[in-house]
Every structure is written in structure tokens, then in C-alpha cells.
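Weekly modeling sync, notes
Attendees: S.R. (lead), two postdocs, one rotation student

Agenda item 3: backlog of single-chain predictions. S.R. asked that every request posted to the team notebook include the full sequence so nobody has to chase files. The rotation student volunteered to paste the first one in as an example of the format we agreed on. Action items at the bottom.

Example entry:
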Amino acid sequence: MTPLGIEGAWVDAPRVLTDGRGRFHEWFRTERFREVTGHALRLEQANCSRSVRGALRGIHYASVPPGQAKYVTCVSGAVLDVVVDIRTGSPTYGMWEAVRLDDRENHAVYLSEGLGHAFIALEEGTTVIYLCSEGYAPHREFGIHPLDPALAIEWPAHLTPALSEKDAAAPTLAEAEQQGLLPSYEECAAYRQHLRTQPEERPAVVAPA
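Predicted structure, as returned to the notebook:
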């Protein structure tokens, strides 16, 4: 896992094994994840989305604590996956970074609690799956408009973005900040430190009778 330019986000480039039968790779491994982040990934929900070419989903985030960390990969087709720093007080506040995820390189992106996430499907029938540290909770889920001119995210010029009604009605980053909807950098750092100090729960191993 390699850190991105936005603190709290990484890209994972797994080793892909290929032979006459096809391909194999580990798209997530707890040991590797823990070594990099300092804590295990809490898994409460796993999502799968299938999108038409040009579908733009996001920018989504959840209030912190507990937020919602995501480990994202593309298993069919391709997306431009974007991490946005929406944490007030962050050195990279308002900045974004894009990573291509596809079914050939099999890269994955991890974004920690408090970061914004969006992606646009580059191919028809693109399928994205992601692990979430917390389950969906409407009362603490928010969005930023992905076409916010101030963010100036460089979505592919040859695609016409297709947004949901909810995403199209989302506020700009400045509006969300004015409304007090954004997590702070300090809150997110404190919560991540909390995760590092919590004892990891492991299932009990029962010896055979």
C-alpha cells in the first residue's frame, strides 16, 4: 500500500498471478492493511455497484465519529476513483487525487474516516465493490457536489456525467462548510488514534472435542 498525496488515503497495487487458467490476486489482506494504517479494518458493510458509462457517484462522506472508511476496487470495467480532502483544518483541505481502478491492474484505494469519495464509470457495465467500516446511516451521510467549480475535479472531458438527483442537489464544499456539515481534521486524527489503541477482537478458536 502506497500513501496518496492526501493524508489518510492509500492505493494498494496487489501482485496479480496469471497462468493458463486465468488470474488471481489478493484484493485485501488484514496484515498488510494493519502494517500500513496501524489498525485493522473494521468491517460492517460491503457494497457493490454496477454503473453505466458516465455514471458519477459522489462526493459522499459520513460525519466523524465514527465516519465511514472505505476500501474500494473495480472488478469489472474501469472507473476514475477520486479522494477529496473535506476535513476543515487539514493542510490539504479542498484538494483531490484521482486513481484509475480497473479489472486489469486490480488496484484498490483505501480512504480513512472523514475523506470524501467519488468515482465515474469509464466503461459500460462497470462494477465496483467496497468494504465499509460502518453501515449506512442516513442521518450522518452527506454529500458534496462533484462538479463544484471550486474543487475543479478533472473528470474525463469525453464523458457526460450522469448524477443521481441527490448528488445533483448536494451543496458545494464552501456551502457545506458554512452549514457546519464537514468533519474537522482534528476530529478525524483523534478517531484514527482511537482505532489504533483499541484491542482487536478476534474470534475464539474452539478445540475439537
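Discussion: group reviewed the output briefly. The mean pLDDT is 94.
Action items: rotation student to repeat for the remaining queue; S.R. to check formatting next week.
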